[in-house]
Design goal:
The structure holds two protein chains of two kinds.
Chain A: H1 2-43, H2 48-60, H3 63-88, H4 96-111, H5 119-148, H6 152-170, H7 208-225, H8 227-237, H9 239-244, H10 249-276, H11 287-297, H12 302-326, H13 332-368
Helix pairs in contact in A: 1-2, 1-13, 2-3, 2-12, 3-7, 3-8, 3-10, 3-11, 3-12, 4-5, 4-6, 4-10, 4-11, 5-6, 5-10, 7-8, 7-12, 8-10, 11-12, 11-13, 12-13
Chain B: H1 2-6, E1 7-18, E2 21-32, E3 36-40, H2 47-54, E4 62-67, E5 70-72, H3 77-82, E6 85-88, H4 100-105, H5 119-132, H6 147-160, E7 165-169, H7 177-192, E8 196-201, H8 204-210, E9 213-218, E10 221-227, H9 233-241, E11 262-270, E12 276-285, E13 290-294, H10 301-309, E14 316-321, E15 324-325, E16 336-339, H11 343-347, H12 354-358, E17 369-370, E18 373-374, H13 376-389, H14 406-418, E19 424-428, H15 436-452, E20 455-459, H16 463-469, E21 472-477, E22 480-486, H17 492-499, H18 504-508
Parallel strand pairs in B: 3-8, 3-9, 6-7, 7-8, 13-20, 13-21, 16-19, 19-20
Antiparallel strand pairs in B: 1-2, 1-4, 4-5, 9-10, 11-12, 11-14, 14-15, 17-18, 21-22
Helix pairs in contact in B: 14-15
The chains are: A mainly alpha, B alpha/beta.
């Protein structure tokens, strides 16, 4: 009996250890990324400590910089969520970039129509249009993946280019969205009634990031507390088992990919309605891929998308002040982002091996004790 | 030394341990020059491990290997190829988009690198084909070749590399009978040239047909080596299946029922390769009986279980459970409890935790889902009860299933499938990979289900446990039932003969 109790404790340990590690995993990865980046900053001839201080200052040093971080995080929250929902279901939605353009097109189109409705409704309709456009964009890879077995990585990735140039075509004259005689291809400016309000005077903080945070929480609750969420996690963990339980796996894949794409669409609309007020040619500029990086950083956990996106947003807004103070070019932030993702994944592998070894040891001891 | 002159290969005292399993225990094995040597044994007997050691895929803990009387160390497959050992795996190692010729030269350095001149190779290819009477076109892509020809290609690859010792791992498992005949001819031809062949199989008939000597492995031991001319089927069958530990048959009462709980009529279906797996199979199973399905692995057992569970569409025929036509996945836990063959792939989601796995079929039903929301409190209560009732050893319901031992993982599946008292229980290889205590536990549970009045279909390739647990035994061979006999006091050899494809009518005559 004593043996059994001792064994129970030993079996509990790795479970707790795993829990601790899973929250430390991103932090440890980020720490390692910062150490390596410090070396690179030093190589570039700047003082890493000074650079990081400027980075932090620029990210959270003042209400303005916090607002700036939030604004930068807005598309990462929504887009990151779109990718994370896919990750949970074992699906790789690499198409956030294109879905953002699709959503932006939908939002811009509705935001340019003078509607006899109150402003809040006009904004809501514009965002809904973005969600619908994003979903429609996602319908193609979703259908192909669910019913034709076509790899969604390829289709979502390729559709990005279609989305980028479709939006580009729409903002070139003589297409109806385009601003006439513009110095740069862009849409006409959206109607004032369709604009998201500014929350903090002297900043560009709009409600986009707050909508993003709310949706992350809702997504978490759906995954955890609804049969739909359970089905999503089940196909993500083992599709063969999902089929065995009698679930319609294909339909679930279809829904999840469409939902993920709708999030990508909303991510695009936030940028238009809250920040840029026009659909500029190539305005997303790779943020869709950064959103995917956020989802990877947090292993698809929708709740962790919130700190993940804010962290990346902070890196981007801090990088500007780092450049001013130390001369380290702002793209350094992208390097740090990439290193964070790589190290977090690396730490994940190391952890898995650690757990396996630990488990094997416990099992062997259990066998030795005749348990 | 004269002994060694005849011997192509001698393996001495080979021992290989895997975590928790002694796969090879002090194995002595030799192959003469010009001999076809059959290596016979059930799944998990240690055949594949021994051959992987010979091919440099595993290192043994102890033991020595001699080739042509010389001690050799085989560190990698490349090493083995250099020494003239060729292996044809059960699952072919061919690159489908490449042509037959390209596959053959793959891995051989060209004569004048970096240029690749295929012409000399093409000549040699055609020459070998003529010599061995293999009709193969060097420029056909592999994916266009039928399976039988793909196997020729694998063998040709070995001829091309001038292999002296050829290992064939379950070579006929993918072949039609006529293709198998052609294979046997090639194998004999190969041996006549003074080369040697190790022929791995668990099919007695073909081993008797093609080999010179036979070595039987069981549970990692060599049971014996016999000249094929002196071997008989019953003797080999006994050597193969005789268990060191015999499970005792537990006493039970007869239960009589009028209506079958499972009725299968003229069921036909195909396997994953699209070949016929079941042919006009009829079976009726009554409440309160355990019907054991015996047979060598791969004779339609998996397909039968999947057809009953609705996971595989029959090409024709009907399956009814308690009158309900199976034309969809049966997820009603009071109708069917299905313990699938591969618990880690189909039975469990090992990344989810214990309580989640216990409700993966029921989560949408009340009380686990109410008003569209999952009730984790109810799920916790339910799982705590099952953990207690089925003695699942886990530190808590929220531990991922991957952290449990094999026996406890199986208990999770069993608990989930049986907790709603299903009318029919289908258990497909439920004891595979479990230790004896866990095996007995599974047997007790199935017997309890039977005594409660459920019909139990018990599929196992371990004849001994089929005999000790079943009320009635049907024997599957190539998708057909060879015979249907009462289990008590049945002659094990009769079952063994049916497993080899003899109908009970023939045997009685």
């Amino acid at each position: 009996m004593i043996k059994a109790t001792a064994l129970r404790e030993k079996l509990v340990l790795p479970a707790i250890g795993e829990l601790l590690l899973s929250s430390f995993r991103p932090l440890l990865g980020i720490l390692l990324a910062f150490i390596v980046s410090a070396g690179m900053i030093a190589l570039a001839g700047a003082n890493p400590i000074q650079a990081y201080r400027a980075l932090i200052e620029g990210a959270i040093g003042s209400p303005q910089s916090i607002a700036n971080t939030m604004v930068r995080a807005s598309p990462l929250l929504l887009g990151g969520l779109g990718a994370a929902v896919g990750v949970k279901a074992g699906l790789w939605n690499v198409g956030i970039e294109g879905q953002m353009y699709a959503g932006a097109v939908g939002a811009t189109a509705v935001a340019l129509i003078p509607l006899p409705v109150p402003s809040w409704l006009h904004v809501t309709l514009s965002m809904l249009a973005a969600a619908v456009f994003g979903a429609a964009w996602g319908l193609i890879p979703a259908y192909l993946r669910a019913y034709r077995g076509v790899n969604e990585v390829v289709t979502t990735l390729m559709l990005n280019y279609v989305g980028i140039y479709f939006a580009s075509w729409l903002v070139h004259e003589p297409q109806p969205l385009a601003e006439p005689d513009a110095f740069y291809p862009m849409s006409r400016i959206i109607l004032p009634s369709a604009r998201l309000p500014i929350l903090l005077k002297g900043s560009s903080l709009h409600p986009g990031p707050i909508i993003g945070i709310a949706l992350c929480v809702v997504a978490y609750l759906i995954l955890r507390y609804t049969p739909f969420g359970f089905r999503t996690r089940l196909i993500g963990s083992n599709p063969e088992v999902a089929r065995y339980t009698g679930m319609n796996v294909n339909r679930q894949i279809l829904f999840v990919l469409i939902l993920a794409a709708a999030m990508g669409g909303v991510a695009g609309s936030g940028e238009i309605l809250g920040l840029k007020l026009r659909l500029y040619d190539f305005f997303v500029g790779g943020v869709g891929y950064e959103a995917l990086a956020v989802a990877l950083l947090v292993m698809g956990n929708p709740l962790l998308v919130i700190p993940g996106a804010l962290f990346f947003g902070g890196l981007k807004s801090g990088a500007a002040s780092m450049q001013i103070t130390t001369g380290i070019e702002a793209p350094m932030a992208l390097v740090i982002q990439a290193l964070c993702v790589l190290f977090v994944i690396g730490v994940g592998f190391a952890e898995r091996r650690w757990i396996d070894r630990r488990k094997q040891k416990v099992t062997e001891e259990a066998k030795a004790n005749g348990y | 030394m004269s002994m060694d002159d005849q011997l192509m290969l001698r393996m001495e005292g080979i021992t290989k341990r895997f975590p928790g399993v002694l796969a090879n225990d002090n194995i002595h094995f030799d192959v003469r020059r010009g001999e076809v040597h059959g290596l016979l044994g059930e799944n998990g007997a240690g055949k594949t491990t021994l051959m992987n050691i010979l091919y440099g895929l595993h290192r043994p803990e102890s033991g020595e290997i001699y080739l042509n009387g010389k001690k050799v160390e085989i560190l990698s497959p490349a090493n083995a190829v250099e020494l003239g050992i060729g292996m044809v795996h059960q699952h072919f190692m061919l690159v489908e988009p490449l042509t037959a010729l390209e596959n053959v030269v793959l891995g051989i350095s060209p004569e004048r690198p970096p240029f690749l001149d295929l012409e000399p190779a093409r000549k040699r290819f055609t020459q070998l084909c003529e010599e061995y009477d293999l009709q193969l076109d060097p420029s056909t892509e592999v994916w266009r070749l039928p399976v039988g020809k793909q196997q020729w290609l694998e063998i040709l690859k070995q001829l091309f590399r001038n292999a002296q010792l050829l290992v064939l791992d379950e070579p006929t498992s993918v072949l039609a009978p006529a293709e198998a005949e052609q294979l046997f001819k090639t194998v004999r031809r190969f041996a006549e040239e003074g080369r040697s062949v190790i022929f791995i199989s668990h099919k007695l008939g073909e081993v008797l047909e093609v080999t010179d000597r036979i070595t039987v492995l069981r549970d990692g031991h060599v049971i014996g080596t016999v000249p094929t001319s002196q071997a008989t089927r019953p003797e080999l069958a006994r050597m193969m299946v005789g268990r060191t530990v015999i499970l005792e048959r537990k006493p039970r009462e007869k239960i009589r029922a009028a209506d079958p709980v499972l009725l299968i009529e003229k069921l036909c279906c195909k396997n994953d390769r699209g070949l016929p797996a079941l042919k006009d199979l009829n079976l009726a199973l009554f409440p309160g009986e355990i019907v054991g399905v015996a047979g060598v692995d791969g004779n339609g057992q998996r397909e039968l279980a999947e057809c009953i569970a609705g996971l595989r569409k029959p090409t024709s025929g009907l399956v009814r459970i308690k009158g309900v036509l199976v034309d969809h996945v049966i997820a009603d836990p009071s109708l069917l409890g299905y313990i699938p063959e591969d618990r880690r792939k189909t039975g469990l989601s090992i990344d989810l935790n214990v309580e989640e796995n216990l409700v993966i079929k029921d989560y949408e039903r009340p009380p686990f889902t109410q008003k569209g929301m999952l009730r984790w409190g109810m799920i916790r209560e339910h799982s705590t009860n099952l953990i207690r009732d089925f003695d699942i050893r886990t530190p808590s319901p929220s531990v991922p299933v991957r952290h449990l031992s094999g026996g406890n993982q199986q208990r999770v599946v069993v608990a989930r499938e049986l907790c709603a008292k299903p009318a029919l229980v289908v258990a497909s290889q439920p004891t595979r990979g479990l230790d004896l205590a866990a095996v007995e536990g599974v047997h007790d549970v199935l017997l309890r289900e039977r005594n409660r009045g459920a019909g139990v279909l018990f599929i196992s390739t371990e004849l001994q446990e089929v005999l000790s647990l079943s009320d009635r035994i049907v024997v599957l061979f190539r998708g057909e039932i060879m015979g249907d006999v009462a289990a008590e006091n049945t002659d094990i050899n009769l079952i063994g003969e049916m497993m080899l494809g003899h109908r009970i009518e023939e045997l009685a005559a």
